[in-house]
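[Archive record]
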Amino acid sequence: MKNIKYLLLLLSTCTFAQVGIGTANPLKDLHIAGTTSTIRIEKLNSVNSSALNDGVKLAPVYVDKDGELTLYPSNYASGGGVPGSVAPLNFLINIGNFIPDGPNYNGIVLNNDLTTTTAGMQLISVPFNAPQNALIEVKYGITVVVSDVDMIASPLGSPLDDRSARTFEVYFCIDLNNDGLDATELSKQYGNKGQAVASSIQGIMGYPYMNAHGYANIPAGNHSLKFFAKTTDGTSKYTSVGFGGDLDYLKIRLYN
């Protein structure tokens, strides 16, 4: 009887004990301490899961309905029943408000003065790292505000009221290796999005919203996205466009 009590006590202790590796004071059911600690699950390696882990590209790990780690999400074979028919993906970047609002919430201002009908500039550069050769999807959304006076000199701007139309456009180029855009990289424009605004006698100012996406194949390494803006107006018209003065977003997904 005494032995049975000891056994029950031992089982109760094991059931509720926290296990520590590298620590004598575990804080969770399993606590692996150490700045260089790692975990290896041989079930998921390239030998045992070769269909989804080729030993070259990183293989994303998912958690199934039972809480088990797996390389096979529930809908992974939805493209025809063959493992790998739906490409796994990772989020490389998910940035809200990626263009600075500026002190007056005009964002980055592009001016098209009275002497020209078209103006353009680079808005912002966003660096990122791709761990492998992959197809990336870039999705972005940008707020815009349009004025008929220079919003750098006069931050409050002025509503359009000259019965004239303006267009504005955003796109991005990919700077491979993050070493500056060469002629080839500059010629490849992705995610082009253009809008137009027309004024009546009485205009108002607000934030039109524009969003777009683009795809590209990239090698592994450090790269950057260069966002550009353009605006066009009529002869002897002044146009000042602020890009990113309110909420915007940028997301990069990698399909491996």
